[in-house]
Amino acid sequence: MRSASRRNTAPGRADRLVLTGVVAALAAGALALEPVGELDRLRAEVAQLRRAMATRPVIDQARGMVMAAGRCTPRIAWEVLVEVSQHTNTKLHTVAARLVATTAGDPLPEPIRAALHTALRRRSRGPHRR
After folding, report:
1. What HEC string does the chain produce?
2. Which of 42, 84, 24, 34 is nearest to 59 (CA)?
3. Among 19, 23, 77, 82, which is disulfide-ready with 67 (CB 3.0 to 4.6 Å)?
4. Chain-centre distance for alpha carbon 98
5. How far, in Å, CA of 70 to CA of 85, rounded?
């Protein structure tokens, strides 16, 4: 079962199928959209889904690293990455990319390192561990 946070932020297979259908229909001119606002909304949604699909692999890699380092579930690892992103005011995909880059020897920026350490430590104590 997928968590609510993942369902709201990550495109799944159904989302990709919808995206593919919308793009194909728009390209073929088969989608007759009356209001210009609706066309703009659909274009924005397509762009957002494309960004999500492009950044998802690095986020999943970083989540795996957090799971291994913190010995936690995928859900907890996701929450850790989101917390680090929020506390450092850094986009989630940037946090993920910086974390994954450490496997190639790049240093983890201090604010991200400190927030990651704090988030993992907080979840390793007491009843918050799931």
Report:
1. CCCHHHHHHCCCHHHHHHHHHHHHHHHHCCCCCCCHHHHHHHHHHHHHHHHHHHHHHHHHHHHHHHHHHHCCCHHHHHHHHHHHHHHHCCCHHHHHHHHHHHHHCCCCCHHHHHHHHHHHHHHHCHHHCC
2. 84
3. 77
4. 14
5. 17
- Global pTM value: 0.65
Cα angle for residues 95, 60, 100 (degrees, 5° grid): 45
User: Could you read off the pLDDT of 78-123 as tens digits, one per residue?
Assistant: 999 999 999 999 999 999 999 999 999 999 999 999 999 999 999 8
Total length of the chain: 130
What are φ and ψ of residue 55, in 5° steps? Answer: -95, -10
